[in-house]
Design a protein that fits this description.
two-stranded antiparallel sheet, three-stranded antiparallel sheet, 15% strand, 37% helix
């Protein structure tokens, strides 16, 4: 098994792609930042610094948590706590979906993905409740695991977003797949 794992890691490093690793593989994350473990299905090899795999988990750095909290604050200010958690879950769910980038920063800054990036409100500090919502999303096992999009039906201007299947409404937001 160790030889197979070694070959798989070497292949992944050379090809720069993602592979699946059995959960019996024992790897650790070596990082200079504090991290929080969240559930995911990817095994990633960062050619520069670390290998991530252990019971199907990935790491979210403190900087990524702060960025996510700023997005939650900008997108869901005035919404109930459950809505803030669901906004954070949308970003985390996108990390596991092949049609989206695979880092928190890349998901958030993807072109036209989130209005606060376009209007600059993402640069404002997050409030305590938004930080708590991010922590809840990281620890809740993705309670809203199917959600990939959200919007305010009263203010959305994209016809495309209205074609998405709505799974739930929380506050002023519709959450969809």
């Amino acid at each position: 098994m160790k030889q197979l794992l070694f070959i798989a890691i070497i292949f992944t490093i050379i090809s720069g792609s993602y592979i699946y690793i059995p959960s019996i593989a024992n790897a650790e994350t070596i990082s200079k930042e504090e991290t929080t473990t969240v559930a995911t299905r990817k095994f990633a090899v960062d050619k520069k610094e670390n290998v991530k795999a252990s019971d199907e988990s990935a790491d979210i750095t403190n900087n990524e948590k702060k960025l996510l909290a700023r997005l939650v604050h900008a997108e869901a200010k005035g919404e109930p706590f459950a809505g803030k958690v669901a906004v954070a879950d949308v970003v985390l769910n996108r990390l596991d979906d092949k049609q989206f980038p695979d880092t928190v920063e890349s998901v958030i800054y993807e072109k036209n993905a989130f209005q606060p990036v376009q209007n600059g409100s993402i640069d404002k500090a997050a409030d305590k409740e938004s930080m708590e919502a991010v922590e809840e999303a990281l620890n809740n096992g993705k309670e809203n695991k199917e959600l990939l999009y959200f919007y305010n039906p009263d203010t959305a201007t994209s016809d495309w977003i209205f074609t998405r299947k709505v799974i739930k409404h929380i506050g002023n937001h519709a959450f969809s797949i």
